[in-house]
Amino acid sequence: MLPTDPEKRISFTRCIREGDLVIVYERHDCMKAVKVCKSSSLQNRFGVFKHSDWIGKPFGSKVFSNKGGFVYLLAPTPELWTLVLSHRTQILYIADISFVVTYLEIVPGCVVLESGTGSGSLTTSLARAVAPTGHVYTFDFHEQRAASAREDFERTGVSSIVTVDVRDIQGQGFPDEFAGLADSIFLDLPQPWLTIPSAAKMLKQDGVLCSFSPCIEQVQRSCESLLLNFTDIRTFEILLRTYEVRQWKTDCSRGNEGGLVGSLPHKRKQHPIEGSGEPDNQNSSSVMARPSGEARGHTGYLTFARLKCLS
Ligand SMILES: C[S@@+](CC[C@H](N)C(=O)[O-])C[C@H]1O[C@@H](n2cnc3c(N)ncnc32)[C@H](O)[C@@H]1O
């Protein structure tokens, strides 16, 4: 489903087909992944949506129910997939994922090693970043989790770029066959310091490692281990501040009393911009952005380190 192999590539300008995975989007905090099957329908609070009406429409289309309600059919990008996947473990979210992909210097063609796979949230973004010619080898010691992740990678269309193996990475390290071949390595393990010596052997010269840990004590132990073979060790905590953009309907009969920057206009009604479904009257509404109450706080620490050069 993701734009990977040029042959199989979905540009997302192409139309929805039978068997496609689509993200049915009601609003930013209400969406689900649905496999399109022409004999099926989706029922929600807006009515019944026949999948057969979706086939042939471009990704991004607004589709209507039998009651005139609507949803959007979006392409299953890694960003949206992270929001709808089934949580079998704690997962990485977009703020951390973006930082990881950038600081691990992942580009098409890279070979990336990862452990643990968990729910495959990060893996899906890694796959898109290395596609079409690179590969992600991801390891988890939990057989059922590895199997579920494999199924998800089939559904999202990245299975040709991702190999999932069952292995105790803390106990056994990464397989020797990858020695000196990895461009980057990502660890989301309870005791990453046990794996760091093996990770050092797997990296190409100048390769980069990242370890995600929720607690600072884990970071300290990891850094002690990293000092042996790595340089440029840096830890980050990524805090994201989300703003809600809302449209305020103003009471025009009260003049321009609410026009001051930062003050609220006299309001009749407020609602988020998205999905309002109401006609917009430019003369009687204004738009405000303010920090969202739902902002996510601490997720974990990201520690990056570069393999020491040989000479
Ligand atoms: C928090 S989850 C990873 C979540 C993942 N980063 C994501 O974004 O979906 C940690 C995973 O590490 C796995 N794990 C823990 N110890 C392990 C070990 N010794 N070897 C391999 N995997 C391990 C667990 O089974 C779990 O699935």
In short:
This is tRNA (Adenine(58)-N(1))-methyltransferase. The protein is of the alpha/beta class and 311 residues long. 21% of the residues lie in helices and 32% in strands.
Task: Provide keyphrases for this structure.
21% helix; globular; seven-stranded mixed sheet; single chain; alpha/beta; four-stranded antiparallel sheet; 311 residues; binds S-adenosylmethionine; 16 strands; 7 helices
Terminus-to-terminus distance: 44 Å
Helix content: 10-25%
- Average pLDDT confidence is 88
| Number of helical segments with 4 or more residues | 7
The sequence of SSEs as H and E is EEEEEEHHEHEHEHEHEHEEEEE
**What structural class results from the helix and strand content?**
alpha/beta
Largest sheet: 7 strands, mixed
Classify the beta-strand content into a percent band.
Answer: 25-35%
Low-confidence stretches: 6-11, 255-267, 275-280
List the strand order in the largest sheet.
9-8-7-10-11-16-12
Number of strands: 16
Globular, elongated, flat, extended or rod-shaped: what is the shape?
Answer: globular
From the alpha-carbon coordinates, what is the Rg to the nearest angstrom? 23 Å
Bound molecules: S-adenosylmethionine
